[in-house]
Amino acid sequence: MTKKLDEYLSPPHKVLALLKTGHERLRQKYTALRVKLRTTENQVRAVTKSRDSWRVRAETAESELKLLKKND
Q: Which residue windows are coiled coil (predicted)?
């Protein structure tokens, strides 16, 4: 069932070159995806932090407004 090396038609150096370029393309692709993922995670973290900050500011302003209306 296994073939001997001389039964293959493609020369080994071409097969190795093809495998090497395919491997390099996959590395580049997934490296780019990791960078994009990291960037997106950082952006989500920043937006969440900003949203929390604005929520605290809005709640503080609301409580101050209620306090002012209560004192009037």
A: 23-71
